[in-house]
């Protein structure tokens, strides 16, 4: 296998084109699934169950984490492109399920401009961080260890907040935006230095996960600031 960083410029350009095309497709699929959830009343059902039951919310987060792990491994380690697509599809559906309760609150309880504003901010942040990763020429793999530790701390705080019923507040959301930004730098660098030119589907899943994490906390900050 030829790693993207060692590939010919034409192959590298084709990989980048395919990866970001698939990323755009994953975001589009996420929007379609959420639209169907709202049209069919599934989003409201998810919101009423998980927002009113902290243990149900913990089960959802645990199930989503497991699904994300399985989907990511399925996409990254499979030689068959169909298996990679299956992993990406599973992850998109998992993201749609976990986002549905938050989107219901955003639509029904917040300023109607919150959702499009969060989407635009996320797009600009992702674009800027991607540009930094590509133009700096640096390998941001050193962020991997930092992200693992920070992620474990964040997960512990989230679980404690659900168990003991306290709010993590805006400071935590800003921390998670910074965490997601670092994850975008790390994963953009990772797909360039540690993925082969045939793993564009798996690469798009890596980036999709970071983008959705960023969007989640940008949206939470805007919702809190406009209440």
Automatic annotation (TrEMBL):
Q: Which keywords does this chain's UniProt record carry? A: Membrane, Transmembrane, Transmembrane helix
Q: Where are the transmembrane segments?
A: 20-43, 55-76, 88-108, 114-134, 146-164, 170-188, 200-219
Q: Name one GO cellular component term.
A: membrane
- Membrane topology, as annotated: Multi-pass membrane protein
**Keyword Transmembrane helix belongs to the record:** yes
Location in the cell: Membrane
Q: Does the keyword Membrane apply?
A: yes
Pfam families per the UniProt record, alphabetical: Bax1-I (PF01027)
InterPro entries listed in its UniProt record: Bax_inhibitor_1-related (IPR006214)
Q: Which residues form a coiled coil?
A: none
Name assigned to this protein: US12 family protein
Source lineage:
Bacteria, Bacillati, Cyanobacteriota, Cyanophyceae, Nodosilineales
């Amino acid at each position: 296998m030829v790693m993207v960083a060692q590939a010919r410029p034409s192959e590298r350009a084709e990989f980048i084109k395919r990866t970001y095309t698939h990323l755009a497709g994953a975001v589009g699929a996420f929007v379609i699934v959420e639209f169907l959830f709202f049209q069919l009343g599934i989003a409201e059902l998810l919101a009423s169950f998980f927002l009113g039951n902290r243990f149900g919310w913990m089960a959802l987060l645990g199930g989503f984490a497991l699904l994300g792990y399985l989907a990511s491994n399925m996409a990254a380690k499979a030689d068959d492109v169909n298996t990679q697509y299956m992993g990406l599809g599973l992850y998109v559906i998992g993201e749609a399920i976990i986002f549905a309760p938050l989107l219901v609150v955003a639509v029904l309880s917040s300023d109607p401009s919150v959702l499009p504003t969060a989407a635009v901010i996320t797009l600009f942040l992702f674009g800027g961080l991607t540009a930094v990763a590509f133009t700096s020429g640096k390998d941001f793999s050193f962020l991997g260890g930092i992200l693992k530790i920070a992620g474990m701390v964040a997960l512990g705080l989230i679980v404690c907040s659900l168990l003991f019923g306290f709010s993590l507040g805006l400071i935590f959301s800003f921390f998670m935006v910074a965490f997601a930004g670092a994850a975008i730098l790390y994963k953009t660098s990772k797909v360039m230095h540690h993925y082969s030119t045939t793993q564009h589907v798996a690469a798009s899943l890596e980036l999709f996960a970071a983008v959705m994490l960023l969007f989640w906390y940008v949206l939470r900050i805007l919702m809190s600031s406009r209440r």
